[in-house]
Amino acid sequence: MEELKKHAVFNVIRRETERIKQNHAYRFLLFSGPLIGILLLYLIFRQGTTRDFPIAVVDEDNSVLSVKISNALDAASDVAVSYKPVDIFQARELLQQAKVDAIILLPDDLEKSVFQGTKASVPVYINGTNVLKAGIIQRSVLTTLKTISGGIQMKKLILSGKNQQQAMARVMPVRLDKHVLFNPYSNYNYFLNSALLYVMLYLFTFLASIYTFGNELKRGTGPGLLAAGDNSVRLSVLGKMLPYTIIFWGFAMFINFLLYEVEGMPLNGSYTFIFIGQFITILTYQLMGIMLVAATSNLRLSLSLGGAYVMMGITFSGLTFPTEGMPLLARYFTVLFPFTWWEKIMISQSMRGAPISEALPYLCYILLFMVVSIAFLPLYKRCLKEEKYWGKK
Amino acid sequence: MQTTKDNINSLELTARHLLQELKSIFSDSGALLILIGAMIIYPVIYSIGYSNEVLTDLPVGVVDLDQSSLSRKYISMLDGTSEVAVTIEPASLSEAEQLFMDNKITGVILIPQNFEKDILKEQPTHVAVYADGSYFLKYKTQYTAASYVNAYFSGGISIKRYMAEGQSFRQAEISNSPIDAQTHILYNPSSSYGSFIMPGLIILILQQTLLIGIGIMGGSFSESKNTPFVLTPDKQKREVLPLIFGKAGAYLLISMMNIGLAIVLVHHWFSFPDKAEMTDVLLLLFPFLIAVIFLGIGLSTLFKHRESSIVFMMFLSPIALFVSGVSWPVSAMPQWLVELSKIFPATTAIPAYLRLRIMGTGLSGIKSEILFLYAQAALYGALTIVYFFFRIRKSAAAQ
């Protein structure tokens, strides 16, 4: 009996391998697609040298101080003075043509005001269209200006007879020590890269599953599948899933290699837990593919819905905008995607190094999706057998 | 003797193909979902997700080892910011760490012992902020709040000391900050996330749904579809232009409806910034749409099975989003990838659209992009037409 069942699974695997060989869409979904997707995303977010953002300095003062400020801005990290327009109107034009991302105006009499101790303002205009970019530029420009301002203040204090320490305590009575937990370089790449590579993996896992299980219905080959699987839907599904599980698991290993070995992303928690989590999430998306096919008995609709579902999962995983900031309705919505829970596992185990007990519930939520999907197997069996479900698109 | 079928003029043929395409779209649930459903569902759901726009009242814990009146003041200033709320005051850093791991707080601020004493003795002191770098926006929000509070608090102390030395308040203010940087964030003053990401995202969704949708409707030479030609094979050359323009017309009509929904209504509902004339927006979107539609029709001829378009195109969506620079600045990407990504019209259209609509530059600011899109549309259109002629000749030769 055991021998026979084992045989049935291998039958189905052999049958599936033949199908994969015959249709190039399968090969794309299983090999070139994920590879291209993963490599492109990796290149986009690779921790390369970020080129500096171009800014414009309008120097109306042309003094020693204004030149010093301009040079300091050029030397500052993340920004580079790429234009020195003669007036603010020209600068504005550059900003509107997106040639620069910020304008710093060094007004006439800047140096004079500073040394006479009268009010000296330096207006900074930043293009806020891209919030992330604006944040980086703002931080860089303000730090540079503050440093120069602090230096002048310090010099004046020392001239008035204070010692170094007293002057320092006046310039900066309370220093703010920044500790960025779990992401020492405050690097956005780790964060987005780790998540998006997995989006790619699960997208292909999900679509490949929908495609292969849906094709049985589209082409009405269900009875053949069941025959190969000893008329058991469980054995048939198991045999059909297995080649995909193995290949996508291989891609998961490839992603791990890229993230941890090549990029040097922190791995502060349990790798075993991440490993198990990956495996379960892959299986879950495969089974959910079957659920979707069974529920719609329509390959093309399933693919449309499936793709849309994974894409929406990006937004609602809190990856781009944290879920805490979302309205209540959207927060309820976030739990409907296995990816949300996967992302929590990743942050908990890879970045934070939290105890496993903290991440365990997340894994159980993913398992819930799996249980619900398995409940659809009898329906899928009916679809395989009955002709009225076949051939729909 | 010609049949009446072959006498039909080109204009009528175009109209016929246009109607035929619309009919098949509306009788296909998968295509309807992508072409029309997605344009309603995505923008609305995404906008709801981002509708709060900025993070407020992130729960942080303050470990106050000083317990002085000055440390109290510092804490109440922190609590007073809109970004963070001091929800708990753990007794020690390890207790705070536990709370953090349990997701009760998103960050910790530590005020050291002798905080007040050092300040009164005019000795430098420090405050430590521990922010969660694993969620980027949370880290940024918390750190910004702490920096503001610290700057105000420190400024207050310094100004008081200058005043104690006999300066007036105004003088003290200037002494404390010889160069006063005044930041103006233009075009999106609240730095809100929704206004930043949604307008560009909508254009991208427009492109991706069109490309996938046109693919789903099937290449004219795909296996799973009957020949689209009305005329007999020897007359089909005459039918290529009406066929392609008819199809393009159908998708242009659907896109106009989608524009009304996503570009006008969604913008209005969620009050995204809008500094452009609608006619200017349409002048930009028209070449964008025809470029996308011709690209879609061209690509659809490559798919053997209709559902293949989803399989081959879906995974490009997040990639197309990032190369357009909507979220992550393009300057950090390899240059060849940026150039390659210009295959997609959205890569050119999105930055131009944002300049037009968010910054209000007017048409003159985006002239080169509009011209590029027209050239792109012409190229894709020409390639598609040539390919159709080629296929017809090939099938004629085969017969």
Short characterization:
The complex is a heterodimer of chains A (393) and B (399). Chain A is built from 16 helices and five strands. With 393 residues, chain A is an alpha/beta fold.
Task: Provide structural commentary.
The complex is a heterodimer of chains A (393) and B (399). Chain A is an alpha/beta fold and 393 residues long. Chain A has 2 domains: 2-46 and 187-389, no CATH class; 53-171, 3-Layer(aba) Sandwich (abc type-2 transporter like fold), CATH 3.40.1710.10. Chain A contains 16 helices and 5 strands. A 4-stranded mixed beta sheet of chain A has the order 2-1-3-4, sandwiched between helices. In chain A, β1 (53-59), α3 and β2 (79-83) form a beta-alpha-beta unit. In chain A, α2 (24-45) runs antiparallel to α8 (188-218), α8 packs antiparallel against α10 and α11 packs across α16. Chain A is elongated and about 95 Å long. With 399 residues, chain B is α/β, with parallel strands linked by helices. Chain B has 2 domains: 9-51 and 192-398, no CATH class; 58-176, 3-Layer(aba) Sandwich (abc type-2 transporter like fold). Chain B contains 16 helices and 5 strands. Chain B has helices spanning 4-7, 10-26, 29-49, 69-80, 93-101, 115-120, 136-164, 169-176, 193-216, 240-269, 278-300, 308-313, 316-323, 335-340, 345-359, 367-398; strands at residues 58-64, 84-88, 107-111, 125-132, 180-186. Chain B has a 4-stranded mixed beta sheet, with helices on both faces. In chain B, α4 (69-80) links the parallel β1 and β2. In chain B, α9 (193-216) crosses α13. Chain B is elongated and about 100 Å long. The relative contact order of chain B is 0.11. Classes of the chains: A alpha/beta (393), B alpha/beta (399). Chains A and B meet through α2, β4, α6, α7 and β5 of A and α3, β4, α7, α8 and β5 of B. β5 of chain A pairs parallel with β4 of chain B.
